[in-house]
Specification:
With 398 residues, the protein is α/β, with parallel strands linked by helices. The chain has 16 helices and 11 strands. Helix 9 packs across helix 14. The relative contact order is 0.11. The model has no long low-confidence stretch (mean pLDDT 93).
Length: 398
């Protein structure tokens, strides 16, 4: 039986992890849970899965959870120290890291440093600290399993193949809700419109990132480190059907693709069960019902966030962390109706120009880069004037 600590238990990924664990009680048990602010759902999860420790985002939410739980209770913690303790719960075989944003980096780092294998659904861990994380994985001799559907697809496509035979990694993108929309109307996009993703049901931050294509940019950075592949050999193609989740092109010209319904239960289950596969995880794919698959080039001028991610990989080691921190601040401001949709890449680009340029040698320096980016992005948000944050010559990408 595999013992699992789960970070982000009340989010969409976390709920799906628990759905799979529920179906396979002889294979998995939950020893630790970390939730955000949904104490009611966290209480239901604690009652069902009986972890030995649980953590909430704040003391107030931890107190609320304690009041909701009658009888025997696990240890209830909160904050950054609480989530780190859940991540390193004694006896844990696998940490499932599904926290959104840079907040997932410290507990994921702590688990790896403690010799615990990690199923990684928190892309910001590799975006902000990719080289350091991979060095830690090598030194601690632990495994890192990708959970993003795109990276799981690449991971599966590479099984049995030599890394030296890779010509190109091709990440697919649905294109989000604004594929084909006139960019001249992007200033008028509302948070509600941006939240209406045509394919996937995700949290607010990831959904906005998908609308700007920043999510695909973050995945490019993640793939660069996860598969040790230069950014010039990582491409992106729009695939609105969301059936092919990504592909690998080999030097002999052949391409291997991973196909499946757009359902996160597939990559989640594979990360939990690797190298085995669980039965009846998700709906079967009916190719005759689909009929055909469609692909399009990315419009880089309409969606400059993707180019900014490629640019970050060409800049200083801290640039991806700066990009990520600035983007998180800008997305929060957009959701709060403080800035326009088109201001997001402007704020990120300007923050990268002014705050990048440092090396990264440890976790503290990564968090400092993140904090520096958020501070500058916050100032730009407060001072924003449309004419002063123009992105000249939007970056290109493969």
């Amino acid at each position: 039986m595999k013992s699992i600590a789960l970070l982000g238990s009340t989010g969409s990924i976390g709920v799906n992890v628990l759905n799979i664990v529920r179906k396979h009680p002889k294979l998995y048990r939950i020893v630790g849970l970390a939730a955000g602010s949904n104490a009611k759902l966290a209480a239901e999860q604690v009652r069902e899965f009986a972890p030995v420790v649980v953590s909430m985002a704040t003391r107030e939410k931890a107190d609320e959870l304690g009041e909701l739980l009658a009888g025997d209770k696990p240890r209830i913690l909160f904050g950054e120290s609480g989530i780190r303790e859940v991540a390193t719960t004694r006896g844990t075989d696998l940490l499932f890291s599904a926290v959104v944003g840079a907040a997932g980096l410290p507990p994921t780092w702590a688990a790896l440093d403690s010799g615990i294998d990690v199923a990684l659904a928190n892309k910001e861990t590799l975006v902000t600290a990719g080289p350091l994380i991979l060095d830690l994985v090598r030194r601690r001799k632990v495994s890192l399993f990708p959970v993003d559907s795109e990276h799981s697809a690449v991971f599966q496509s590479l099984v049995g193949h030599n890394k030296g035979d890779i010509e190109k990694i091709i990440l697919t993108a649905s294109g989000g809700p604004f594929r084909g929309r006139d960019p001249k109307t992007f200033d008028d996009i509302t948070p509600d419109e941006a939240m209406a993703h045509p394919t996937w049901n995700m949290g607010a931050k990831i959904t906005i990132d998908s609308a700007t294509l920043m999510n695909k940019g973050l995945e490019v950075i993640e793939a660069r480190w996860l598969f040790d592949t230069p950014p010039g050999r990582i491409g992106v193609v729009i695939h609105p059907d969301s059936i092919i989740h990504s592909m690998v092109e080999f030097r002999d010209g052949q391409i291997i693709a991973q196909l499946g319904m757009p359902d996160m239960r597939g990559p989640i289950a594979y990360a939990l069960s690797y190298p085995e596969r669980l039965p009846d995880v998700m709906p079967k794919l009916d190719l005759t019902a689909i009929g055909r698959l469609n692909f399009h080039e990315v419009d880089g001028r309409a969606f400059p966030c993707l180019g900014l991610a490629y640019k970050a990989l060409e800049m200083s080691p801290d640039a991806p962390a700066v990009l990520n921190g600035a983007n998180e601040a800008a997305v929060a401001a957009f959701l709060g109706k403080k800035i326009r949709f088109t201001d997001i890449p402007k704020i990120v680009g300007k923050t990268m120009e002014t705050e990048s340029g440092y090396s990264l040698s440890n976790l503290i320096e990564v968090m400092e880069a993140d904090a520096r980016a958020r501070k500058t992005a916050g100032r730009l948000i407060r001072e924003l004037k449309p004419e002063r944050l123009k992105i000249e010559n939007a970056p290109n990408y493969p």
